[in-house]
TrEMBL record:
Protein name as annotated: Anhydro-N-acetylmuramic acid kinase
Pfam families on file: AnmK
Cross-referenced HAMAP family: AnhMurNAc_kinase
Role this protein plays: Catalyzes the specific phosphorylation of 1,6-anhydro-N-acetylmuramic acid (anhMurNAc) with the simultaneous cleavage of the 1,6-anhydro ring, generating MurNAc-6-P. Is required for the utilization of anhMurNAc either imported from the medium or derived from its own cell wall murein, and thus plays a role in cell wall recycling.
Record Gene3D superfamilies: 3.30.420.40
SUPFAM superfamilies xrefs: Actin-like ATPase domain
Source organism: Celerinatantimonas yamalensis
Family recorded in the similarity comment: Belongs to the anhydro-N-acetylmuramic acid kinase family.
Length: 384
């Protein structure tokens, strides 16, 4: 809870992220008045199951009428607005005290290397501005791609602002649906890239085999044994050997991708153990390229005990810690980054790190969709 009412010149921004895991909506309120951003509060809403199914179908290219995509976008944006309004009510925060909301949208397709590259996030920021009364910043990836960048990952610059340490290498590892790393070497330009699957394949496999949304603490994976030949086949995927800058998504790492490597006689829990090993190996082979220091883990995968133990035992020279140990919530990290990116946009500062995405230059990211609360006759009341 906020203990005092902020003044109208506040530095309070909201950030909203719904990531590639498709588990739901994270919204945060952040105060940037001091050198270190302060998380004022957060809220999570799972997606309604039928919306989640629609978003999956769109992301997996299942045949759907275009109207279904339009409707899903409106539905999703109504859910986003509801989550924002719930957080504001929880914190007793009025829209006029909030500078802006940074709303990432829902990635359904990401094709940074293509004849006409694009990264598609479903989002209706005009609707969100209308329903929340908060100026909404959206479409963060397109400008970076217009300059030839990958459009992802965008969080490394925020990781750098939070965690750079003049005395040692710090790598920030986000384990969401996809895993990505930010390499914070005090003597080198910022680097960051996606390493491959985070939880995405493990989630999909346990959903198919056990109808569970995810493998709690990696317990099911721990019941299985890694199949070395399968792991080796999975590691042949060219994405893993590709040099950075690079980024990926559900369009590459899905169950059909996995199916092509299966012989059909494997035990289901052994496959899960092998998928966990793939996540660990694809991360650690990248981390080991850099001089040892601290590996700070955020995203939902930081809750997976088996995954965290395997990371630490594979990287004995590294200190593996959740970012929470340094006072920054790993569950709120990505949404906080989009609050920061919204602020960068309003302050006309760069949001991308060209050394990360490969863009030809830094750029102000995002489009601004203004709230209408200052217009006459708009006694703004939030709509649900
Ligand atoms: N206790 C737990 N044990 C194992 N896995 C967990 C646990 N808690 C969360 N997870 C994993 O974290 C996932 C959600 O992570 P997160 O919210 O970081 O994803 P995201 O924001 O969608 O991803 P991305 O970073 O790709 O955008 C869940 O789908 C699940 O796989
Ligand atoms: C296209 C897209 O949505 N990519 C996500 C995804 O989820 C994790 C990883 O892949 C990262 O590259 C990115 O998200 C974070 C927020 C980023 O841009 O840094």
């Amino acid at each position: 809870m906020i203990t005092s009412t902020p003044d109208i010149c506040s530095e309070i921004y909201l950030g909203l992220m719904s990531g590639t895991s498709l588990d739901g909506i994270d919204v945060v309120a952040v105060d940037f008045a001091d050198a270190k951003p302060v998380l004022l509060g957060s809220h999570h809403d799972p997606f309604p199951a039928p919306l989640r199914d629609k978003l999956y179908a769109i992301a997996l290219d299942q045949p759907l009428p275009i109207s279904a995509i339009g409707q899903a976008t409106t539905w999703l944006s109504e859910c986003y607005s509801q989550s924002v309004n719930t957080l504001c009510q929880k914190l007793a925060l009025q829209p006029q005290y909030i500078q802006a909301l940074g709303c990432h949208g829902q990635t359904v397709h990401h094709h940074p290397i293509a004849p006409y590259p694009f990264s598609l996030q479903l989002n209706n920021p005009s609707l969100i501005a209308a329903k929340t009364g908060i100026t909404t910043v959206a479409d963060f990836r397109s400008k970076d791609m217009a300059y030839g960048g990958q459009g992802a990952p965008l969080v490394p610059a925020f990781h750098q602002a939070l965690f750079v340490d003049p005395k040692q290498t710090v790598i920030v590892l986000n384990i969401g649906g996809i895993a990505n790393i930010s390499i914070l070497d005090p003597h080198q330009p910022l680097i960051g890239y996606d390493t491959g699957p985070g939880n995405m394949l493990m989630d999909a496999w346990i959903k198919q085999c056990c109808n569970q949304p995810f493998d709690q603490d990696g317990q099911w994976a721990e019941k299985g044994r890694v199949i070395p030949e399968l792991l080796e086949r999975l590691c042949q995927e060219p994405f893993f050997a590709h040099p950075h800058p690079k980024s990926t998504g559900r369009e590459l790492f899905h169950l059909q991708w996995l199916a092509q490597f299966l012989l059909g006689n494997e035990r289901a829990e052994d496959i899960q153990a092998t998928l966990l090993a793939l996540t660990v190996l694809s991360i650690t082979q990248e981390v080991q390229r850099y001089s040892p220091g601290r590996l700070l883990v955020c995203g939902g995968g930081a809750h997976n005990r088996a995954l965290m133990q395997s990371l630490q035992s594979t990287l004995p020279l590294w200190q593996v810690l959740p970012t929470d140990a340094l006072g920054v919530s790993g569950d709120a990290m990505e949404a906080m980054a989009f609050a920061w990116l919204a602020r960068q946009c309003l302050h006309q500062q760069a949001g991308n790190a060209a050394s990360v995405t490969g863009a030809s230059q830094q750029a102000i990211l995002g489009g601004i969709f203004r709230a209408d609360t200052h217009l006459s006759n708009s006694h703004f009341t939030r709509q649900s």
